[in-house]
Every structure is written in structure tokens, then in C-alpha cells.
Design brief:
Length: about 270
């Protein structure tokens, strides 16, 4: 399997905290160790660099504790960047910060007309855009995504509030295959996934409950939470190389490696 060099955007968790609860993982009364979160995040960044990927960074903004989850900052494909619109007011101010970053980086900008939480819910899998809905990204935004990016958009109906973003329930492994938790999807979406990806890896609830599916693959190496041992074993059986990382502090906000990582796809060549 060939690894593709990736271009990522990340945001240091300098102001990370769990001050509000907008998903079932978040408990504002539980203690959070921000220094440990930073060290765990730095380790993730180092793993990417060691794999030969390029990591860009956006400056964190005080008062935006979830800004570390860069995947929610936008969707960037073929040099086009679609900005985001958050469901929850607590995260609203992240959208213009990320938008400004894309603009200065020279991407062609598009603005969302409906709630759209970026790569948290919108994943390019081969030549299809898989687009989650049910908790965050509005179904109405899917049509706009298809219009802007020109990839067929496949709606994925999420049904379990713990797996509120598509990237908590499904990982794109390479151009042909994904891994996912079937029960996180409606029966119809499960049927679509079986049709599109007959060789997909099926994860267990035990893997998903440690956010094991919130993983980042370059087509050969899969970076995933180290607690997801069952999923890692299945991936190795399929020939992927797995790299476990511990993001226990960020998991208190409902995030894992993929949430911290936005793919920047300049154009066809660097997809
Ligand atoms: N606390 C954040 C939220 O609920 C976590 C976002 C995780 N990001 C992701 N791409 N799944 O919005």
C-alpha cells in the first residue's frame, strides 16, 4: 500500500478546556489537564512529521476551547475551501478564525449556507464525498457541497449521539476502503456503506467508545487512539501499519486524532 504525503492544519490546545457540554463526552465538572493535552497534541504532531507529512498551524484564540479540533474548521479539496457554520453558539467564533486562515493561505473560499461542521462530517472517500447529518451538519448543506466540490455527495445518517460527527463513526483508510461502526448509522446508510465499500473494516463498539475510528490514514499508516487495540489488530491484518497515540485529555471534549487534523488538499496532485 502506498502512503501519500499529507498536508495538515492543526491548532495547539493552548486554551483547551471543557467549559460547556455540546456532546455526551463533555462533562464541565470533570477536571482537565491542559498541559497534558498540549503534550499529547505535540506527540500527535511529531508522529505526522515523522511520517513525512507537513503540518501547518493556526494561532489558537483565547476563549475558544474547542478550536483545537481543526477538522471542524473547514473542508478543503482541490484548492477550494468551504468555511464552516457551527450548530452551537459556543463554537461560532472559530468559523471566521479558520476562514481567515484559509484566505491568507490562498484557497478559493466558499461560505456555507447551512450548518456545516467541516471535515468532522464531510469526508472524501475515493471519488465520493461522504457527508454526515443527524446531529451537526444540516442535510441541506450536502447539496451545496456537491455543487462547490463537484463530487457525488452521499448522505450518511448518524443515529448515536456519542458518534455525533461522521469522523467519530467512520475512517477513510484509502481510495477504496473505510472502517466504520455499523450501528452508528441508520439502516439505510448501513446498506449504502455495504454497497459502496464491500471490503470495509467493521469496528466494534469497544473500539468506537475510545474514539478508535477518529483516525488519520495516509493510505498505509493509520494514526489512531492507542486504546483502540481491537481495531488496530484488524487494520494490521489488512496490511496497514498502525500508530497508537494517547489523546485522553482531548477525548474529554469528544475528540481524537482526526478531530485535531484538517486535510489541506491543494489540488488533484496532492489529494
Ligand atoms: N467538543 C467538540 C464538539 O462537540 C468536539 C469536536 C470533535 N471534532 C470532530 N471532528 N469530531 O464540537
Amino acid at each position: 500500500m502506498d502512503a501519500t504525503r499529507q498536508h495538515f492544519l492543526m491548532c495547539r490546545p493552548t486554551y483547551f478546556a471543557v467549559d460547556y457540554a455540546i456532546n455526551p463526552w463533555m462533562d464541565p465538572t470533570a477536571p482537565v489537564d491542559t498541559d497534558l493535552a498540549v503534550r499529547q497534541w505535540e506527540r500527535l504532531r511529531q508522529v505526522y512529521r515523522d511520517l513525512g507529512h507537513t503540518v501547518e498551524e493556526i494561532t489558537p484564540v483565547p476563549g475558544l476551547p474547542d478550536m483545537v479540533f481543526a477538522a471542524n474548521g473547514g473542508t478543503v479539496i482541490d484548492g477550494k475551501a468551504m468555511a464552516v457554520q457551527f450548530r452551537d453558539p459556543q463554537r461560532a467564533d472559530e468559523a471566521p478564525a479558520y476562514r481567515a486562515w484559509f484566505e491568507q493561505a490562498g484557497f478559493e473560499m466558499y461560505d456555507p449556507k447551512h450548518v456545516n461542521e467541516g471535515e468532522g462530517d464531510i469526508l472524501l472517500a475515493g471519488d465520493h464525498l461522504l457527508a454526515g447529518t443527524g446531529f451537526r451538519t444540516a442535510h441541506a448543506s450536502h447539496a451545496q457541497l456537491q455543487e462547490v466540490f463537484g463530487y457525488p455527495v452521499i448522505t450518511m445518517q448518524l443515529v448515536d449521539p456519542r458518534f455525533y460527527h461522521l469522523d467519530t463513526a467512520l475512517t477513510v483508510l484509502d481510495e477504496r476502503t473505510v472502517a466504520y461502526l455499523p450501528e452508528a448509522f441508520s439502516p439505510g446508510s448501513q446498506a449504502v456503506l455495504r454497497r459502496l465499500f464491500p471490503d470495509a473494516v467493521h469496528a466494534t463498539m469497544a473500539d468506537a467508545e475510545v474514539l478508535g475510528l477518529n483516525a488519520v490514514s495516509d493510505g498505509r499508516h493509520v494514526v489512531l487512539p492507542e486504546q483502540a487495540t481491537g481495531l488496530a489488530a484488524k487494520l494490521r491484518e489488512r496490511g496497514y501499519q498502525t500508530i497508537g497515540v494517547d489523546l485522553s485529555e482531548l477525548r474529554k471534549a469528544g475528540g481524537g486524532p482526526k478531530c485535531c487534523t484538517l486535510r489541506l488538499r491543494q489540488g488533484k496532485a496532492s489529494r
